[in-house]
């Protein structure tokens, strides 16, 4: 009798559980399966996080790539931006233009100096700075500067206004005015280093290819002249 009552109670409990599960499924509140409940806690946390909406990453606009400044290179063996000491690394366009301006200026001075070495020593028998007391200039060209100063002490002072005049023209032509908002020791944006418009013999080409070839020739000869003058001074 007791066994019959226990079996009846179990049968009723199982039927009630089945009815509750079906009702919950229809209502959208189905209980999770047991195998899902048996998953490790870490996996369940990961599943919950993956289901969350990820935070939007702010979009940062990329900085436009700066085009390198197109300076004349020269030609072999001194072309292609010869820079063994790495002085141009990390420099902006304004500084590179200033370096090129200095290079061209010193190249032109060196070319004149090389001719001066040969010209001065070739005219020792017909000196330009001769006095009865000291006579003419003698010896290697590296000592002519001192001999001129001994004979005519005011000669170099008289040449200062001459140099200042042309340096003033160069500064007004290419250098930015810091008193008007320009950078300090900076060149004008529309100025090409070395292009002062000085062409008394009208030898500068008008076409772009001819201009580039002339600029390369000037760079090559100027660099060679700087090395040549340094060699003459070391030998003498």
Describe this structure in words.
This is Chloroplast protein LI8182.2. It comes from Bigelowiella natans. Chlorophyll a 1 binds at residues 88, 103, 106, 218, 221, 223, 235. The protein has helices spanning 2-26, 34-37, 41-51, 93-122, 144-151, 155-174, 208-235. The protein is 53% helix and 0% strand. The protein is built from seven helices and no strands. It is mainly α and 236 residues long. The radius of gyration is 44 Å and the shape is elongated. It has a domain at 93-196 and 207-233: Chlorophyll a-b binding protein (Orthogonal Bundle), CATH 1.10.3460. Residues 28-37 and 64-68 have low confidence and may be disordered.
Give the SSE layout.
Elements: H1 2-26, H2 34-37, H3 41-51, H4 93-122, H5 144-151, H6 155-174, H7 208-235
Helix pairs in contact: 4-7
* N to C succession of SSEs: HHHHHHH
What's the quaternary structure here?
single chain
What's the total helix number? Answer: 7
Mean pLDDT: 76
Q: Please give the share of residues in helix.
A: 40-55%
* Cα-based radius of gyration, to the nearest Å: 44 Å
Report the portion of residues in β strands: under 5%
Please describe the biggest sheet, giving its number of strands, its sense, and whether it closes into a barrel: none
**What is the CATH top level name of the domain at 93-196 and 207-233?**
Mainly Alpha
So, CATH architecture of the domain at 93-196 and 207-233? Orthogonal Bundle
Termini gap: 136 Å
Look at the helices and sheets and give the structural class.
Answer: mainly alpha
Low-confidence stretches: 28-37, 64-68
Shape estimate: elongated
**CATH fold naming of the domain at 93-196 and 207-233:** Chlorophyll a-b binding protein
How many β-strands, per DSSP?
Answer: 0
Binding site for chlorophyll a 1: 88, 103, 106, 218, 221, 223, 235
Organism: Bigelowiella natans (Pedinomonas minutissima)
Binding site for chlorophyll b: 69, 108, 184
Signal peptide: 1-17
